[in-house]
Amino acid sequence: MRAPRLLIVGPQGSGKGTQGVLVAEAYGIPAISTGDVFRSAVAAGSELGRQVQAIISAGDLVPDELTSAVVRDRLSQADAAGGFLLDGYPRNLAQVRDLDAFLEARGGELDAVIELNVPRDESIARLSQRAQEQGRTDDTEEVIANRLAIYERETAPILDVYRDRGIVDDIDGTGSLDDITDRVIAALEARGLIRSAAA
Ligand code: AMP
């Protein structure tokens, strides 16, 4: 079967970045994280990096037009032609519409949306651990609060849209990394999204 087109959604500290990479590896598809793309651009000091640096440090959202253009570029690369796993995009309803339009023009749509659920106190504990380990500028207490508020206000509603389409899999994001990955893959396989032997 063809490779799946997936999206992973979860609040900050839910482990969606880590699980996104593991699930993408299992299916042999690229994991595309807009947060990673922006952080790399900042680190490289590119034009894009200069445009987004202050926005990311404040925990605000990069403008939709810029974000959607970055994703369209990335999804147009050869390795994403079959399937991909998006992490962190779309993040609001306008971006859902942008992605729909882009995929529709290519004759496709998302196959499944993985919603990773972790209790609030556990995700905050994971974030403060990451703050110590990685020193991200957006992992300070104040910025985390802003990012979580934006998640509740702008990102959680996109799940209702995808739920109406019947493509959301609610996954318990607690426990060992392997257990969580197994749960995600079991849910995707139940949808008929079977890993190929080569992946
Ligand atoms: P993340 O690693 O997914 O938490 O993303 C880190 C930061 O990158 C976010 O707090 C935003 O500033 C920016 N960002 C990532 N994805 C998006 C998106 N889809 N739309 C707007 N801003 C984004």
From TrEMBL:
This is Adenylate kinase. The keyword Nucleotide-binding applies. Belongs to the adenylate kinase family. Catalyzes the reversible transfer of the terminal phosphate group between ATP and AMP. Plays an important role in cellular energy homeostasis and in adenine nucleotide metabolism. Keywords: ATP-binding, Cytoplasm, Kinase, Nucleotide biosynthesis, Nucleotide-binding, Transferase. GO terms for molecular function: kinase activity. It is found in: Cytoplasm. Its EC number is 2.7.4.3. It comes from the Bacteria. It catalyses: AMP + ATP = 2 ADP. Residues 33-62 are annotated as: NMP. Consists of three domains, a large central CORE domain and two small peripheral domains, NMPbind and LID, which undergo movements during catalysis. The LID domain closes over the site of phosphoryl transfer upon ATP binding. Assembling and dissambling the active center during each catalytic cycle provides an effective means to prevent ATP hydrolysis. PANTHER family: NUCLEOTIDE KINASE. AMP binds at T34, R39, D60, L61, V62, G88, Y89, P90, R91, Q95, R136, R147.
